[in-house]
Amino acid sequence: MVPISDDMNTGAQGSHGRGPSKRSTGKRAVAPGLYIVSTPIGNLGDLSPRAIDIMSAADLIACEDTRVTGRLLKLHGIDTRMTPYHDHSSPASRDSLIQRLKEGGTVAMVSDAGTPLISDPGYRLVRDAVDAGSMVTAAPGPSSPLTALVLSGLPTDRFFFAGYLPSKDKARRDILAEVSGLRATLVFLESPKRLAASVAAMADVLGDRPAAVAREMTKLHEEVRRGGLAELAAQYAAMPAPKGEAVVVIGPPGIDAAAPADIDALLTDAMATMSVRDAAATVAAAIGTPRKEIYSRALAVARNAAELENDTE
């Protein structure tokens, strides 16, 4: 998702971030099929030993940009042949890869960085490989949306990944309005040039929710800005476009976005069969609201129910 840059091997390094890997000098046999291989989003030490083995043993590596992937392969002494496969590839290119799989070949698919298919090409190739009866598996690894999510400090139990927003303001706001009611943390990708406008639109449409903007993740100059959407919008409006693509993570609607009477009804129903604590956890998960807020409300509902029962005795 984020092209490899010159500082991708900075920061803490693993044994595979210091030049050619000894594991890649001898090819290990792997079963025929399509391998979806995750590559680093920043720090080259995040390339897994298994990913190196697969790319070394594959007959062919399908990649977005042979120049970008070629740099990564060279660092690890991998000489497997590459072929371009991206959004603009023809159906004939995909058919050629499927034919190789049908003949018992091994194809590794990578994007420029991160996990393939996540806002990157590859969905149709996977679909066709499955339809052809080929083995399809993955060597999981780095993913910028998940990395930003876990760094954000926002709820992670339920989230919605929406990819890139449209470039035109009206279309952007229409999409934001569509997802505004989701009881889940929202995750978006955005380019540096559009970041300020997108965060401003998010603040207008979604309200001043807690959010985080992550950039340069796993690199030397990693940055995560956290705050309300209004505060973040003001910050990005007052500064030049930052370097590198960003991931914007936005918290779910708070308790005040849901009707209190509806929340109380859910809690009352839940507490009929479970403890106050368990009922609060269940309702919080159902509506995407922090458990602490719902637990406080659950205590109040339970207290009011007890007082009402005493008054009727």
How does this model look, in words?
The protein has helices at residues 49-57, 66-75, 91-102, 123-131, 144-152, 169-179, 195-206, 229-237, 260-271, 276-287, 291-312; strands at 33-37, 60-63, 82-84, 106-110, 136-139, 159-164, 185-190, 210-215, 223-228, 246-250. It has 313 residues and is of the alpha/beta class. The chain folds into three domains: 15-142, Cobalt-precorrin-4 Transmethylase, domain 1 (3-Layer(aba) Sandwich); 145-253, Tetrapyrrole methylase, C-terminal domain (Methyltransferase, Cobalt-precorrin-4 Transmethylase, Domain 2); 256-312. It has eleven helices and ten strands. It is elongated, with a radius of gyration of 24 Å. Helix 9 (260-271) packs across helix 10. The N and C termini lie far apart (65 Å). Helices cover 41% and strands 16% of the residues.
Helices and strands in order:
Blueprint: E1 33-37, H1 49-57, E2 60-63, H2 66-75, E3 82-84, H3 91-102, E4 106-110, H4 123-131, E5 136-139, H5 144-152, E6 159-164, H6 169-179, E7 185-190, H7 195-206, E8 210-215, E9 223-228, H8 229-237, E10 246-250, H9 260-271, H10 276-287, H11 291-312
Parallel strand pairs: 1-4, 1-5, 2-3, 2-4, 6-7
Antiparallel strand pairs: 7-10, 8-9, 8-10
- Please provide the count of β strands: 10
Number of domains: 3
Low-confidence stretches: 1-26
Query: What is the CATH level 1 assignment of the largest domain?
Result: Alpha Beta
What's the pLDDT, averaged over the residues?
87
Task: Give, in spatial order, the strands making up the sheet with the most strands.
Answer: 3-2-4-1-5
Q: What characterizes the major β-sheet?
A: 5 strands, parallel
What's the Cα radius of gyration?
24 Å
* CATH level-four homologous superfamily name of the largest domain: Tetrapyrrole methylase, N-terminal domain
In terms of DSSP E residues, the strand content is: 15-25%
- End-to-end gap: 65 Å
Helix coverage percent: 40-55%
**What sequence of helices (H) and strands (E) makes up the elements?**
EHEHEHEHEHEHEHEEHEHHH
CATH architecture of the largest domain: 3-Layer(aba) Sandwich
Q: Please work out how many helical segments DSSP would assign.
A: 11
